[in-house]
Amino acid sequence: MSSIDSPPTSSAPGGPETSAQAIFIQTLVGAGVAVTGIALGYGALGISSEAGYGGVGPNFLPWLCAIALTVCGVWMVWEARTGGFRELETPSGAARGYWIGFVWVSAGLLLNAALIVKIGFILSCALCYLLAVQGLRRASGQPRVDDPRTWAVDAITGIVISAPVFWMFTQFLAINLPGLTSTGWL
Fold first, then answer.
1. Cβ-count burial of 123 within 10 angstroms (0-12 exposed, 13-18 middle, 19+ buried)?
2. Quick one: 36 and 120 in the same domain?
3. Cβ atoms of 170 and 176 closer than 8 Å
4. Is residue 32 part of a domain?
5. Structure confidence at residue 17 (pLDDT)
């Protein structure tokens, strides 16, 4: 196990010091968060500040997020530079990512995006759910992932989840989502 795979150690009195490499990586993470906050603030400059409902303009939430991210990023950099992130728990899970599971989940997301206008919201989201769950089942080492019954249960579950969402948006909120028919029910 390399030092990058191992969790940083606490710099509490009497404890071992955090490695220089871990401090550098932690500083980069904090700087990335701070830069993201600054970029969000820069983007919020282009949003109108004209007060809307309740006296709050549309740029309020982006500014709030930008300030929070910037403050958190600066704080993370300070924590890293003054001894490293404190009280980190030992990471759980495998030492390396399970790439086959990642491919299953990615395939579900990409096929959903590619097929949503062709086969409709319900079926494309059910397919996304089916493939994502297969990837997660394989990553956790569940038995019988190739069993047709498991596939059928996952497909039906995907439909049971996506159909009410589709109906809520199309029938009750009057938001158009791609469907198989023009009725708004499929």
1. buried
2. no
3. yes
4. yes
5. 52
Are 36 and 19 contained in the same domain?
Answer: yes
Instruction: Read off the pLDDT of residues 22-80 as tens digits, 9 standing for 90 and up.
Output: 889 999 999 999 999 999 999 988 888 776 666 667 788 899 999 999 999 999 999 99
**Given the structure tokens 């309740």, which residue do they identify?**
54
Give the tokens for residue 169: 């948006």
Residue 167 in contact with residue 159, Cβ under 8 Å?
Answer: no
Q: Considering only CA atoms, which of 138, 108, 104, 133 is closest in space to residue 123?
A: 108
Coil/strand/helix, residue 45: coil
Q: By 3-state DSSP, what share of the chain in percent is helix, strand and coil, each rounded to 5?
A: 60, 0, 40
Q: Is the Cβ–Cβ distance between 111 and 128 less than 8 Å?
A: yes
Q: What is the residue range of 159's domain?
A: 99-172
Residues 164 and 133 in one domain: yes
pTM check: above 0.85: no
Last residue of a domain, one of 92, 114, 137: 92
Q: Which of these ranges, 67-71, 138-142, 157-161, 176-180, has the smallest mean pLDDT? A: 176-180
Burial group, residue 131, by CB count within 10 angstroms (0-12, 13-18, 19+): buried
Domain count, the chain: 2
